[in-house]
Design goal:
alpha/beta; about 90 residues; binds NADP nicotinamide-adenine-dinucleotide phosphate; four-stranded parallel beta sheet; single chain; 4 strands; 3 helices
Length: about 90
Amino acid sequence: MLLLTGATGTIGMPLLRRLTAAGVPVRCLVRDPRRLGVERVRVQIALGDLSDHLSFRHALRGVETVVHLASVIRDQPNGSIEELAGVAT
Ligand SMILES: NC(=O)c1ccc[n+]([C@@H]2O[C@H](COP(=O)([O-])OP(=O)(O)OC[C@H]3O[C@@H](n4cnc5c(N)ncnc54)[C@H](OP(=O)(O)O)[C@@H]3O)[C@@H](O)[C@H]2O)c1
């Protein structure tokens, strides 16, 4: 199982399409699964947020590879850029 964060983003979505087309089992850590579009039916969905450590600890179960593309470039309501981009990573 591969865990992909940032699957709804500029880089993450084309990567996700390639992975699912190649038959790679993928779990996506997402805040809103609707943003995955049609790909949401082809993946495991782990609801989560970089501000919620328990959510991505849960998402990591059984995972061998992580592609971490969730990207934070400024403070968000749930955490500072240091917490979300640094500590969470
Ligand atoms: N785009 C480029 O040309 C480029 C070039 C060089 C390097 N990079 C690097 O590649 C990585 C991905 O960039 P990108 O352009 O694809 O980013 P992006 O389009 O801005 O996408 C950001 C992703 O991060 C997710 N995200 C944001 N805050 C989150 C949070 N608190 N918890 C969970 N997920 C969160 C977003 O999910 P939501 O859908 O929920 O908002 C979205 O999937 C970054 O590290 C960037 O520096 C990008």
